[in-house]
Amino acid sequence: MVSLTVMTFFLLEIPTDKNLLFFVFLSSVVGYNYAKHPDYFLKKIHLKKPKTVFWLSVFCVFGSVFFFFRLNTKAQTGVFIVGLLTLFYVFPPFNFRSLSGIKIYIVALCWVISTLFLPIFQTEFQINTDVWLKSVQRFLLIIILILIFEIIDLKEDNPELKTVPQTIGVKNTKILGVMLLFLFYGLEFFVSSHKVSQFLPNGIFALIIILFLFFASEKRSKYYTTFWVESLPILWLLLSVWLSGKT
């Protein structure tokens, strides 16, 4: 989350706001733990999981609140929208997580708002055509990465979720992922301002993701996604900075 947020500052060449970076980091820990273990927080159950999960979340809640009030009104509004989507992701009566075929788009939308629009709102950057193109690219990227997760989780996901691999099969999901990657890369040609050229970094990054898609399988270890795929945004940032000649 932080890497993608830094990517926005980098690509748009706007000053990095450290308050926002701290907020994104802390709030993403809270949001992930809440979405992953809702019963851990919403019901009175025996703490079967490590207590560090709970106390880490409590610490991050206080940290998030502190940095939330250091954001401007526009950014706070964006946070409010993401907060509602996260709350309703697992909380009745909406429970977006269980809605067939909807989850992937809700998650991608939250990531786009958090990592792209919050930096724009916080720095008062003018939203133009390039920003909308970047937002579509970011949305596609998150969707593609989620597809890899869904392939790995195929044997554990409830069939009622109707994830993409459950609906069209693993092979077709991989083909869809590659097609979306071509679209992700192709949109760069429509960006009018190339102060920071992404043709080479995005090309290399797309090839790496294709490899992850190709080798994705429900037989793979959880670390395939929870470590390696989760690390891809960090690699994208490093590639972009390195190949641009910036430090």
Describe this protein's structure.
The chain is mainly α. It has 2 domains: 1-126, no CATH class; 128-247. Helix content is 71%, strand content 0%. The protein contains 12 helices and no strands. The protein has helices at 2-12, 18-36, 38-42, 51-68, 73-90, 103-123, 129-152, 164-168, 170-186, 199-215, 223-229, 232-244. It is globular, with a radius of gyration of 18 Å.
Q: How many strand units?
A: 0
Annotation field: number of helices: 12
Report the β-strand fraction as a percent range.
Answer: under 5%
Provide the number of structural domains: 2
Low-confidence runs of at least 5 consecutive residues: none
SSE order and pairing:
Layout: H1 2-12, H2 18-36, H3 38-42, H4 51-68, H5 73-90, H6 103-123, H7 129-152, H8 164-168, H9 170-186, H10 199-215, H11 223-229, H12 232-244
What key phrases describe this protein's structure?
247 residues, mainly alpha, 71% helix
Task: Provide a brief overview of the structure.
The protein is built from 12 helices and no strands. The chain has 247 residues and is mainly α.
